[in-house]
Design goal:
Low-confidence stretches: none
Mean pLDDT: 95
Strand content: over 45%
Radius of gyration: 13 Å
Helix content: under 10%
Number of strands: 11
Order of helices and strands: EEEEEEEEEEE
Shape: globular
């Protein structure tokens, strides 16, 4: 059974930092791409960042470039999203997702292309 479990969300003030984690289990993810998405109330789910388990340069949404960093720890089967200089507009439920078997050949930003999803973790940013 494939499981993606996010953690690390919370309530912070604008300018603060948070690190989200996504623990993956239930299959071999080594050939997958792992993405982070977010969804604010009344809005569509939007792409944040993606990385290949196999390595290589990650890809970011313009809105988070320079503030967020995605990384992975293959030994722990965990993907991270370090979020710095948080803004109120970053508030959302954050989801991690796996895009099967792409191995970093290219990155999808459409959430419909992702195969497995976590349950999400809430990030709230007060101004």
């Amino acid at each position: 059974q494939v499981q993606l479990v996010e953690s690390g969300g919370g309530l912070v003030q604008a300018g603060d930092s948070l690190r989200l984690s996504c623990a993956a289990s239930g299959r071999t993810f080594s050939s997958d791409n792992m993405g982070w998405f977010r969804q604010a109330p009344g809005k569509e789910r939007e792409f944040v960042a993606v990385i290949a388990w196999s390595g290589g340069k990650p890809y970011y949404a313009d809105s988070v470039k320079g503030r967020f960093t995605i990384s992975r720890d293959n030994a722990k089967n965990t993907v991270y999203l370090q979020m710095n200089s948080l803004k109120p507009e970053d508030a959302a439920v954050y989801y991690c997702a796996a895009d099967r078997d792409l191995g970093g050949r290219y990155f999808n930003t459409d959430p419909r292309e992702y195969d497995y999803w976590g349950q999400g973790t809430q990030v709230t940013v007060s101004s």
